[in-house]
Amino acid sequence: MRKEDCFYLGKIVSRHGYKGDLLAKLDTDEPESYENLESVMLALGNHLVPFFVRQSRLHKSALLRLSFEDVEGEAAATELIGAELYLPLDQLPPLEGNRFYYHEVIGFRLQDETHGDAGEIRSINDHAAQALFVAEKDGKEVLVPISDELILKVDREAREIHVRTPEGLLDLYLGEG
Known about the structure:
By secondary structure, this protein is mainly beta. The chain has helices at about 75-80, 170-175; strands at about 5-15, 20-25, 40-45, 45-60, 65-70, 85-90, 110, 115-125, 130-135, 140-145, 150-155, 160-165. The strands form 2 sheets. The protein has a 6-stranded antiparallel barrel with strand order 1-2-5-4-3-6. The chain has a 6-stranded mixed beta sheet with strand order 10-9-8-7-12-11. A hairpin with a 3-residue loop joins strand 4 (about 45-60) and strand 5. The chain is elongated, with a radius of gyration of 20 Å.
């Protein structure tokens, strides 16, 4: 399985005890959704390796305590610290309304309340303080903040996201007005 076919779930941050249990910090608002995993993919080197889960449960609400089959003792567990956890995309719970996964909206069109078509979403930049839609319109890059206040509607059927951009933002990129 390739990383492109998976979503990042979190990262193993430490051992727990001496039997080989590990603690993972999950990148999710709903860690309880992942309490009963059967398996998970670990990024080891340049490969995703499947690990079967003997037991998984929340640990102090923010961390997931994992016990893997075939990982016994401190030494074996220590080798996995820092490994990223992935799950196949089809295991993502579906979102509704104006909530969406970043990978889900690539290829959607941004429709601005005032200016109309603001371009096709090519990627998401989530490395800045504010996550941004990176769209392209007439060969020009358009950056629009991802914010609940700006997103009016996510139309999955039409593959559009309707937004209310701040005054002058699109003019800055598209030289209109």
